[in-house]
Amino acid sequence: MSKENSEQTKEGMEKMEHIVLSYENRVATIELNRPNALNALHEQMLTELLQALKEVEASEADIVIIRGRGKGFSAGGDIKTMLQSTNEHSFIEVMETIKQIAMTLHQLPKLTISYIHGAAAGLGFSLALACDHVIANEQARVAMNFIGIGLVPDGGGHFFLNRKIGDVKSKQIIWEGKIMSAQEAYEVGLVDEIGDEQAIQHKVNEWLAKPIRAMIATKQLYARLSEQQLFNTLQMETAYQAEMRKTKDHEEGIRAFLEKRRPHFSGK
């Protein structure tokens, strides 16, 4: 990394409270850093994550690792923060940030690895699936569980699920909202590898020993072929999410979550 880029990154890092960005050789590591909230993603954290991705994009790193601090990868969107704001303009701003994160990660001219330990749910799972290679340890649990609060997946969740396993299986997983073990996720094709910290280093070493420029070129080719589809998916997710937020089932899902009980949905 050049001195100029290093200084710019240092300045950016000083402004980030919930994201930790570090570099070692040709590898950048982005850590989600709200461990006391299971790395639930709220507006500030999402903004910082986008900032970190932009900084990495301009860096000389070839590989990016995304992981969480504490007991899990990410519990998803921060529901408590969501409840504090019913402002429609704020909702649109958050969804725009999420859209930019998904597009940036999809098109990033770097090879990306997500490492899931503990929980990766909802938006957190969408983020993990957006990476080129998904590693989960044996204790990991994943879920596309928006259905539990009457919402649809966002963060490109529909796109990234479909890319890995097709629309039929994707619908089943979204509609069921089931919590899957690492082994179950691996068997269905959502996780590429089950392994521990050593598996991350092994994959990094494997990639660094290859002509990585050619690998990145292939990634960018596929990204350009599908970028309009991802963009359209993100636009539709925003529209459907706005619609679902107005339903009685969403209200019931939120109440049930706060009261720690099973929801009673009415289809309205």
UniProtKB/TrEMBL annotation:
Task: Name the source's superkingdom.
Answer: Bacteria
- Keyword Transmembrane helix in record: no
Check the record and name the InterPro entries matching this protein. Answer: ClpP/crotonase-like_dom_sf, Enoyl-CoA_hydra/iso, Enoyl-CoA_hydra_C
Keyword Isomerase in the entry? The reply is yes
Keywords from UniProt, A to Z, are: Isomerase, Lyase
> Which Pfam families does this entry report, sorted A to Z?
ECH_1 (PF00378)
EC numbers: 4.2.1.17
Matching SUPFAM superfamilies: ClpP/crotonase (SSF52096)
Q: Name one GO molecular function term.
A: enoyl-CoA hydratase activity
The UniProt similarity line reads: Belongs to the enoyl-CoA hydratase/isomerase family.
What protein name is recorded for this chain? Enoyl-CoA hydratase
